[in-house]
Amino acid sequence: MESTNRTVQCISPKGLHRIAYQEWGDPRNANVLICGHGLTRCARDFDNLATAMADKYRVICPDVAGRGNSGWLADPMLYSIPQYVSDMVTLIARTGVEKVDWVGTSMGGLIGMALAAQPDSPVRRLVLNDAGPVVTKISLERIATYVGSAPVFANLDAAIKYVRAVSATFGPHTDDEWRFLTEVVVRRLADGGFRMHYDPRLADPFKQSMPEGDLEMWPLYDAIRARVLVLRGAQSDLLTRATCDAMEKRGPKAKVVEIEGVGHAPTLMHADQIAIVRTFLTEGLTH
Questions:
Q1: Which of 160, 169, 219, 254 to pair with 135, CA 20 to 30 A apart?
Q2: SS3 for 256?
Q3: Class of domain 4-142+215-282
């Protein structure tokens, strides 16, 4: 199944920018699923999930500002959840529907959580893929070691080696899958080399706002009225089992499923992971 590439114009305090997104499925379908990617990833991460869900949903996978085919922000300090939520509200308005379901991996989960916490939120069902209201200090420090480093690679093999190293916590993948996970987040340079295709300045607010301890956002989580599914990589250093236990008991009382053999975060590329998401989202779904 092929997707359609589209863009929508969004606004920030420093001007206009374009958000690119891929759209799968019947554009007339009133059931819309939006998929939000991780900090340095892109919309193409959801190719497998979108293909599997397009019989039930119009699936929309955006490149968050500063990543993939989307525009870069004039002020790097705007690379933050409030701006991303604003952009997603504009994107949802473009769909012409009142309610959407959301799948978010890591940062994409935090965007979805913040959006779902708003009064009169359009989010009906929310899948938090290794994301929650507590982000551990140790995971933030790990991410800070590579985000914004803007390395240049002599060839694609070198880029694949790098992505496999910084994304080892994704769990087991075939060589072809690692190649795909690399190709979608790099761009070829004029001299034949490759670089990561995101604005390295997005590391500025990430590093400047580094908390002294864990980052906690329980008020957002407790305000959510959507149905919530949490996927946790069983070896995740970002989303702890203790946080998941609390998420089951308070706020929207999420359903939690652990994925064995994976850390941060499940890629949702494999049939077993996709099946968990599909079952949750399509239960009681009407057309």
A1: 160
A2: strand
A3: alpha beta
